[in-house]
Every structure is written in C-alpha cells, then in structure tokens.
Write a structure and sequence with these properties.
It is a single chain. By secondary structure, the chain is mostly beta strands. It has 1 helix and 11 strands; from the N terminus they run βββββββββαββ. A hairpin with a 6-residue loop joins β5 and β6.
C-alpha cells in the first residue's frame, strides 16, 4: 500500500486546510493521522476505522479537525479549521489492516504510531500568527 498525503501548505492562524490521504485498496485499512512538530515527538491525533463508522480525535484537535473517508475514492480526508501556530508540523497518514480491534488502534495512536503497517510521506503544514 503506497499512501500519498497531500494538501499541506502555509496559512495564517484561524485559517483552514484539507489534507488528503490516498491509496489503492484503502477501504481495507483503518487510517491514522500523525504529526511531528519542530523539536517534538510524533503525535497521533486522529484516526478512522476502515468502514468510517468510528473516529477518534485527541483533545488538542477536537472541535477543529474532522476526519472522514470516501472509500469509493480510496481517500481519507482531514479537514483542519481554526488552525493555530502550534499545529505547525509535518503531517503523515498511516494505515493499519482493518482486522485490528478499535481499542488496539487507539493504543497505537496514543503511543505515536509504532505498529502501523504503512506510512505515507509527510506533508508540511505551517501556521503563522
């Protein structure tokens, strides 16, 4: 599975961006979004089950970021609104085979992503104040 993340860019605080993560066969995978800011460790902050029936967002993005997917287009989206300078990071999407239990996926997210099966190249998001 070759994941391709796109949609990053530079915006001012309060602005919006939509990231996409695409790959053939994506409907068979749960997808997580991770980010790594300057001098920081990797943070798993949002994920969605293969069916789209369950989603998770950390408190740091809850109410501002929305994860969704369109399996007919083999794409997962991350709508990011009300962006803050602290959201500046390289953003990655990663895939985990759909057989994983939801609780186990959340544990992987909270640990920074070790255990995800496939990773895409990152896309830079820069938010200026």
């Amino acid at each position: 599975v070759q994941l391709q993340a796109s949609g990053g860019g530079s915006v001012q605080a309060g602005g919006s961006l939509r990231l996409s993560c695409a790959a053939s066969g994506l409907e068979h995978y749960s997808i997580g979004w991770f980010r790594q800011g300057p001098g920081k460790g990797r943070e798993g902050f949002s994920c969605i089950r293969s069916s789209g029936g369950s989603t998770y967002n950390t408190d740091s993005v809850k109410g501002r970021f929305t994860i969704s997917r369109d399996n007919t287009k083999n794409t997962v989206y991350l709508q990011m609104n009300s962006l803050k300078p602290e959201d500046t990071a390289v953003y990655y999407c990663a895939a985990k085979r759909s057989l994983i239990a939801w609780g186990s996926l959340l544990a992987i997210m909270k640990s920074g992503g070790g255990g995800m099966d496939y990773w895409g190249k990152g896309t830079q998001v820069t938010v200026s104040s």
